[in-house]
From TrEMBL, chains A, B:
The keyword Metal-binding applies. This is Polyprenyl diphosphate synthase. Belongs to the FPP/GGPP synthase family. PROSITE patterns: POLYPRENYL_SYNTHASE_1, POLYPRENYL_SYNTHASE_2. Keywords: Magnesium, Metal-binding, Transferase.
Length: 352, 352
């Protein structure tokens, strides 16, 4: 993996005091659980500094103000707000997906139950808006509006993701639309919100939003390739992890929608893993037996043979180029633009 | 029960088209489930007009604009927003509380599962902010800020409510604070948001907010009395319903915190219903056997004997008087003030 751009570590350091001050406003239970989720305390409440993720969204928000010539502080409430919305969605998604661990720590619902995860997530979402609107800046209203609309798209993506699990077929277009909601929308808002807070012209804001949308889709395409063919030593996930959960990811949806025997075989496996006579019932992934290594290797081969891997990587490169074009079409601070370009390449250019 | 003030029916009629237009923006699943929850469609999607509640909050929002001399339309986005926040909390609370029915219809989680209820609630919360901020009014930002802060208090109230279930003792002050969050905060915001959108002076907004806070507490005090001593023919709930669930409501918390044998007996019953040798384990209400009618009558008598009923009714009357004082301390449109006073008396003055 390429080295993380300096803006990432810088973003985390810059926003943490403001993020902690915001979380301190919450009731004592939501505050405790949010502080645990962000890696500041252990489940018991002792100070710690666990991995809290790369903070890509806050880094984008800070850069987006710098890109339009404003000091990064202008974007600080926006950076805190997008990080709160991202983590609201993680806390709720972990519960919905039944994920017991995140970054090698137990998830909020696993430790404190589902009601706590619902309420702590709700509190983070409301807090994101409060942080923005408390600034009293005249640009807070359009920034808060962008964030509310983005949250709607983020939720739409999660709704689609859950719906796809119960369907035997999804089109590539539907799958891209889901990723645009679930991954693209908040990266787009993050890349634009600093410029919105700085009062930048609409065309500049739109270019930054388009950059974020396309980087988000490129990221998801690469992430989906890694979910099937990634090296466990690099990804930290089991080999073929997305196939184990039978996820209709982007390369899978591409392969499914091609003509030919490989696509038919893949569709048959997704509908009834283990082949004819298998115990699996379609639409009930939880009831199916865990497929073996050899079977997963065969299915990965079907997807690769039907062109799913090559398509996803080519599409990621195309999306990244569109993101870069978007930044070149408007006048931006050269240093911030270079950092945005480096950040885009970093999230896409992982070992595949 | 006294006749509902005209503003209630009027409020429902006024906001429904705008509320439906807002819900139409949601993804197809959240839209369907929200439309069902609001009583516009059956679970299968056929048009209907089921009971959607009294719409007290939208009525307050519309009156609050009229009270400061603005046309009620100014408050319409605020009325829609408070109704969305109220219903976000109902959809999530029904899931957390395991309630299978609301207004004689199955709840969203019961029909479509817990993930759907989480996402549909999330979508309503985000939509509330979007509706306000889409107006582009200069007063939308303070209104959205009020709504975000209110949502934080609303969530705090639900966190406390769930925490109290697991505790053997709560003070009256804690119980009032919980009700101020869970019931008072959104009624307060509803009574103020129209004035905020109309750009009214801070003192006027504060008076309306105080009126809503106090009406909310008075409402909750009466509601808690009805939950123990209410006539099932009037309340539509089983007799002693709040005792069956061993809820630490306001009259119970008052009685618990008095000195004497009645209070001790009540505390013992809450800790181990059925008396010494009973099968119940404290802190695990779900595991306890259902107490019989005679036992519930006895416990209601303990609370009444310790002064819980009289205190709650006197406190409700005191709160209502404070609400009315708040409205008399500022200059308001006389007709709208009279309607606010009538609405306050209506929500408090039920058959007790």
């Amino acid at each position: 993996m390429s080295t993380a751009p300096a803006c990432l570590g810088h973003g985390r350091v810059t926003i943490t005091p403001a993020l902690r001050a915001a979380v301190d406003r919450l009731d004592h239970r939501s505050r405790h659980q949010a502080a645990y989720h962000f890696g500041w305390i252990t489940a018991g409440g002792a100070p710690t500094s666990a991995d809290a993720g790369k903070a890509v969204r806050p880094a984008l928000a800070l850069l987006s103000a710098e890109a339009v010539g404003a000091p990064p502080e202008v974007a600080l409430p926006g950076a805190v707000a997008v990080e709160l919305v991202h983590n609201f969605s993680l806390v709720h998604d972990d519960l919905m997906d039944g994920d017991e661990e995140r970054r090698h720590r137990r998830t909020v619902w696993k430790l404190w139950g589902s009601s706590s995860a619902i309420l702590t997530g709700d509190a983070m979402l409301a807090l994101a808006q409060e942080v923005l609107l408390d600034t009293g800046l005249p640009t807070a209203a359009p920034a808060a509006r962008l964030l509310a609309r983005t949250t709607r798209h983020l939720i739409r993506g999660q709704v689609q993701d859950l719906a796809f699990e119960q369907r035997s077929h999804v089109t590539v277009e539907e799958c891209v639309d889901m990723a645009a909601g679930k991954t693209g929308a908040l990266l787009s808002a993050s890349a634009a919100i600093g410029a919105v807070l700085a009062g930048a012209p609409e065309a500049t804001v739109d270019a930054l939003a388009l950059y974020g949308d396309q980087v988000g889709l490129a990221f998801q395409l690469v992430d989906d390739v890694l979910g099937i063919w990634g090296d466990p030593a690099v990804t930290g996930k089991p080999v073929h992890s997305d196939l184990r959960s039978r996820k209709k990811s982007l390369p899978v949806s591409y392969a499914l929608n091609q003509e030919g025997p490989l696509s038919d075989e893949l569709a048959a496996w997704l509908a009834a893993p283990g082949g004819p006579g298998g115990a699996g019932k379609p639409g009930e992934p939880g009831e199916l037996g865990e497929p073996g290594e050899a079977e997963l290797r065969r299915v990965a081969g079907l997807i690769e043979g039907a062109g799913g891997r090559d398509w996803a990587l080519a599409e990621a490169a195309r999306r990244l180029a569109l993101a870069e074009d978007a930044l070149r079409g408007v006048e931006l601070d050269a240093g911030a633009r270079d950092e945005l370009l480096a950040l885009g390449r970093f999230v896409v250019d992982r070992e595949v």
